[in-house]
Amino acid sequence: MATYKTRAQFVADDLRGRILGGEFQGGTQLRQDALASDYDVSRIPVREALLTLESEGLVEFHPHRGAFTTELSVARIRELFELRILLETHTLRRAIDCLTDADLKKAEDILEKYDKALDSGGEIGNWSEYNFAFHHALYAPSELPETLAIISQLNTKSDRYIRMQLLYTQEIEKAEREHHGLLELARRGDVEQACELLKTHIQEACEGIVAVLEERTTLTEQC
Amino acid sequence: MATYKTRAQFVADDLRGRILGGEFQGGTQLRQDALASDYDVSRIPVREALLTLESEGLVEFHPHRGAFTTELSVARIRELFELRILLETHTLRRAIDCLTDADLKKAEDILEKYDKALDSGGEIGNWSEYNFAFHHALYAPSELPETLAIISQLNTKSDRYIRMQLLYTQEIEKAEREHHGLLELARRGDVEQACELLKTHIQEACEGIVAVLEERTTLTEQC
DNA sequence: TCATTGTAGTTTGTATACAATGTGCAAAAC
DNA sequence: GTTTTGCACATTGTATACAAACTACAATGA
Question: Which residues, if any, are the signal sequence (chains A, B) (predicted)?
Answer without folding.
Answer: none
